[in-house]
């Protein structure tokens, strides 16, 4: 009966640490997606028209890419995901590499230490980029990947050229002034 107090409690900090890690990961994902603009705003049919000239088209592309960058990234990744459905090995490699990117680059708080040496973020970025390209090339879906990324870029350029930019910051400013913007939501 006296042995009840001798049960080691080293396992209790583990779940708390895991929960903290998961909550930090969730916060970082929310922060990253926080710059995602509402799809309704992005595809507002009243804001679609042809630009008057080339300089206006270039200005629209620059503004829209800066404003809708997270939405555009989601679109390209979705097109890439759809194209890899017919290449299951490539899809598995893609998902594994996305997980590696999340855990080794985007979601980590502390620098990576290997053999008592701190690895710079640029090195991690380069290594992950090279590994992603090499592994996807080894799956023999290179043409499929290039075509799907090209399709995603064309979709983005068409949208960014046709989407007027005069209402983007006005709606954001009005939402922030009335307290209905993303900064007031919890």
Automatic annotation (TrEMBL):
<dbReference type="GO" id="GO:0005783">
    <property type="term" value="C:endoplasmic reticulum"/>
</dbReference>
<protein>
    <recommendedName>
        <fullName>PRA1 family protein</fullName>
    </recommendedName>
</protein>
<dbReference type="GO" id="GO:0016192">
    <property type="term" value="P:vesicle-mediated transport"/>
</dbReference>
<comment type="function">
    <text>May be involved in both secretory and endocytic intracellular trafficking in the endosomal/prevacuolar compartments.</text>
</comment>
<feature type="transmembrane region" description="Helical">
    <location>
        <begin position="119"/>
        <end position="139"/>
    </location>
</feature>
<keyword id="KW-1133">Transmembrane helix</keyword>
<dbReference type="Pfam" id="PF03208">
    <property type="entry name" value="PRA1"/>
</dbReference>
<keyword id="KW-0813">Transport</keyword>
<dbReference type="GO" id="GO:0016020">
    <property type="term" value="C:membrane"/>
</dbReference>
<keyword id="KW-0812">Transmembrane</keyword>
<dbReference type="InterPro" id="IPR004895">
    <property type="entry name" value="Prenylated_rab_accept_PRA1"/>
</dbReference>
<feature type="transmembrane region" description="Helical">
    <location>
        <begin position="66"/>
        <end position="83"/>
    </location>
</feature>
<comment type="similarity">
    <text>Belongs to the PRA1 family.</text>
</comment>
<keyword id="KW-0472">Membrane</keyword>
């Amino acid at each position: 009966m006296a042995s009840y107090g001798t049960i080691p409690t080293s396992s209790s900090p583990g779940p708390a640490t895991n929960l903290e890690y998961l909550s930090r990961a969730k916060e970082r994902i929310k922060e990253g997606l926080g710059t995602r603009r509402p799809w309704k705003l992005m595809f507002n049919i009243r804001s679609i028209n042809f630009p008057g000239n080339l300089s206006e088209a270039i200005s629209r592309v620059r503004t829209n890419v800066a404003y809708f960058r997270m939405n555009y990234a989601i679109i390209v990744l979705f097109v890439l995901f759809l194209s890899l459905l017919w290449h299951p090995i490539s899809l598995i490699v893609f998902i594994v590499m996305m997980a590696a990117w999340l855990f080794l680059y985007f979601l980590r708080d502390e620098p990576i230490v290997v053999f008592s040496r701190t690895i710079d973020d640029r090195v991690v970025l380069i290594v992950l980029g090279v590994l992603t390209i090499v592994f996807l090339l080894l799956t023999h879906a290179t043409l499929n990947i290039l075509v799907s990324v090209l399709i995603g870029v064309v979709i983005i350029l068409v949208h960014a050229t046709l989407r007027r930019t005069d209402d983007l910051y006005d709606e954001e400013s009005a939402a922030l002034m009335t307290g209905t913007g993303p900064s007031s939501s919890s």
